[in-house]
Amino acid sequence: MHRRQFLSLSALALPGVAWAAAAKPEKPLRILILGGTGFTGPHQVRYALSRGHKVTLFNRGKQPHEWPGEVEELLGDRNTGDLKALAGREWDVCIDNPTTLPFWVRDAGQALKGKVKQYVFISTISVYAANDRPADESAALEPYTGADAMAETQETLKASKMALYGPLKAQSEAEARRQFGSSVTIIRPGLIVGPGDETDRFTYWPVRLARGGEVLAPGDGLDPVQFVDARDLAEWTIRMCEARAFGTFNATGPARPLTMKAMLDGIAQGVHAQPKLTWAPTKFLESAKVSPWGDMPVWIPAEGETAGFARRDIKKALAAGLTYRPLSTTAADTLTWFKTLPAERQGKLRSGLAPDREAALLAALKNPPAARG
What we know:
Elements: E1 4-8, E2 30-34, H1 41-50, E3 54-59, E4 70-75, E5 91-96, H2 102-112, E6 116-122, H3 154-159, H4 165-180, E7 184-189, E8 192-193, H5 204-211, E9 214-218, E10 224-225, E11 228-229, H6 230-242, E12 247-251, E13 258-259, H7 260-270, E14 276-280, H8 282-287, H9 315-319, H10 327-338, H11 343-346, H12 355-366, H13 369-372
């Protein structure tokens, strides 16, 4: 089933949105966004509209949005190959946001062949084969070792417990090049954060620091961290379309190296907190089965197999105009957004430590078994 409808409604703006002060293009683009209603998509739509572009969304229509201007919406289902709504149409650029499955890229290529001048594929830094050293865009990608990448589905991806995520994104990148040739822009974001992130993989820290009290922090504070505000990523993606910039780009941040301690300091500034941080050595966290990234969001130990995970080379993206709003702004806006959620949702973060577990870990850190005699 598919239909077209035009919406011209007032924006439900998220707090702290600040459009980059780049000169508007002389000629508006016709932009097709596959997805567009998830996390980064709405930021792309709002920014594109603010710069005079004409926006079309293609998705299943499951997450309706209100927009600050006219947005065309086409309905279809890439899981079933229903892309009929794209037939007989042309756009200047297509931005593919949600795709992990290679057959989605193949089908998009067949439906849009000769109908778009640029195809932007949103990939991930998880495509790299190794995380033990810093990587630029030329580093080796994680191989796919299954029977048939085109036969993989959302169900098989989930069944792999996301182990196939990196390999399938890499295969999708390759398929994008097969379908669209040199007209491809591949953007590899790191952790995407900010208001609207339902995973709480960054949100945990603004919420936790604002709550106050003694806070368990991972490592010694010197491990590097990388992430990008969804709004900065979205706005830059639109500007890359305006510039018709092709190639592959690591798109994480910030612009300069940032440590875990500096990140928590910046978040504390943004949420007006003065937390008492207690740093837990990596070995203690390992022995207590406290997981990096999940229990301790954003953080990955900068040693061994993960020594380079948060040291991705972003020089190409910086040269291509990727900019960042202040960390304190991202933290403040994220906390403001989180407080708009239902109380039940606020009561159970989807990443990070539950209060009782954090308290138990702090107690164990101060009174290890050897000290108890």
